[in-house]
Amino acid sequence: xxxxxxxxxxxxxxxxxxxxxxxxxxxxxxxxxxxxxxxxxxxxxxxxxxxxxxxxxxxxxxxxxxxxxxxxxxxxxxxxxxxxxxxxxxxxxxxxxxxxxxxxxxxxxxxxxxxxxxxxxxxxxxxxxxxxxxxxxxxxxxxxxxxxxxxxxxxxxxxxxxxxxxxxxxxxxxxxxxxxxxxxxxxxxxxxx
Length: 193
Hints:
By secondary structure, this protein is of the alpha+beta class. Helices cover 59% and strands 22% of the residues. Residues 48-75 form a coiled coil.
């Protein structure tokens, strides 16, 4: 009888080599893929942190710009208010109200012949009176007015008028005044009293 001997070791070694040759590259590819995914995740995390930092910095800059804009708007509001005040200070005084005030100061028989007004507040008045003392009285009234800073009588001239239906000649006195308005007092009072 003959014996058959089977040598299993070399055959197993061939199978193991084949398996190892097949498994090692797969493991290497898996390790390489895992490392690549890890590196990509790490770099994405770094990029997200950088973007978050930039976003935070942009928000801080936005907040600073908004604060500056608010300050500028408030400064702009102050500038607009100052401009409005300057405009109102230079805005002409309503002539009708000034004329009404000067008319109230006239004596009963006083009449305006002319009224000239400049935007600087200088007024030239020509007024007719029946008596010369009325011209002095009117100057005193002008000087006492809170709406006037300065008043002066420039001239007084006597005119003779014929009385209707009689030969009698009646004197009339024509006085010329220069008056400087107190524009601030007029604006503060709004309506001249």
